[in-house]
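pasting Nicotinate-nucleotide--dimethylbenzimidazole phosphoribosyltransferase for the record, 348 residues
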Amino acid sequence: MDLLNQTVKKIGKLDDEIMEKTRKRVDNLIKPIGSLGKLEDIVVKLSGITKKPFPKVDNKAVIVFAADHGVYEEGVAAYPQEVTVIQTLNFVKGVTGVCALAKQARADVIPVDIGIKEDVKEEGIINRKIKYGTDNMAKGPAMSREEAIKSIEVGIEIAEKEIKKGRNLLATGEMGICNTTPSSAIVSVIGGYAPIEVTGKGANYPEDKLLHKASVIKRAIEINKPDPEDGIDILSKVGGLEIGGMAGVMLAGAANRVPVVVDGFISTAAALIAYKIEPKVKDYLIPSHFSAEKGAIKGSKLLGLRPMLDMDMRLGEGSGAVLAFNIVEAAVYMNNEMITFEEAGINV
Ligand SMILES: Cc1cc2ncn([C@H]3O[C@H](COP(=O)(O)O)[C@@H](O)[C@H]3O)c2cc1C
Ligand SMILES: O=C(O)c1cccnc1
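structre below
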């Protein structure tokens, strides 16, 4: 708890003064004001986060947390649970969706076992297993409050290690068969939505069984009664270990003034947990894409952040976040490479 408390305490406000200066310069770049749209907003935000007029994003990594879920036994996922471990091993081989897109974006993929249900001994996978998967949230809490805090602290520790190594742009990713179920539960609790309104097909769960998936989520919420105002309570009762890890990365990014790109639906659920713990964290987050998962738009609205890409993506793993790295980097190039009207000798 000490690490979490210290981290939360360190989270400050964006630097308004530098943001104003950056906005002024961006407005004066040789283009009609506002014509580079969201690229302009991104670089202004980056300057407020980093306190630098010319922020850099040349050292990028996506931290991918893998964990299993006890609620799998309720029949809420289409794919076998073994895919979690197989895919985590594939992160090391560099052959998954996020790996391919990270290669293109010149970013590193950092896989972390935070709760896979079996032992995974493989060089390249950071072993920070808290337990062998969560407990079945439809029968009781997914984990204890202590374990929930630990999962966030694992995320903080790993992010801080990367930041110390010089990372200046982080992203969150995850792998955990069945994790759209706890993610929908989180959005339902925080937004006050009926589970069916925010329950989608995840990794191709059959449409005609969605009522069952939503009813399991409903039962989990009724049994556990998570407090909608207490992020740690929600995480422990209806969350997941990888969701806690990702929330930790976001809090650590904010505490150390490093931007964090938030991937799709599951990362957004983690962002909501971080936001409930410390609302200021939101200013340090850059959402990547509108996930096609039902509930994703509601989740983003609750967070109050609008993703930049609309690509019909619904993979998770951090795939959309590393794709968005390219756009964030483009915003930095705009800021670095363009001249102002003044520098061009034009008076307007
Ligand atoms: C091969 C494969 C690769 C994946 N990579 C990410 N996910 C995504 O799907 C899972 C969530 O969907 P659900 O809740 O329906 O199980 C998570 O592991 C998420 O990262 C995958 C799923 C599969 C099957
Ligand atoms: O957007 C996501 O994160 C997502 C959506 C469906 C399945 N897995 C992940």
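The chain has two domains: 2-55+333-337, 60-329.
Strands lie at 60-67, 107-115, 126-127, 169-175, 260-262, 285-287.
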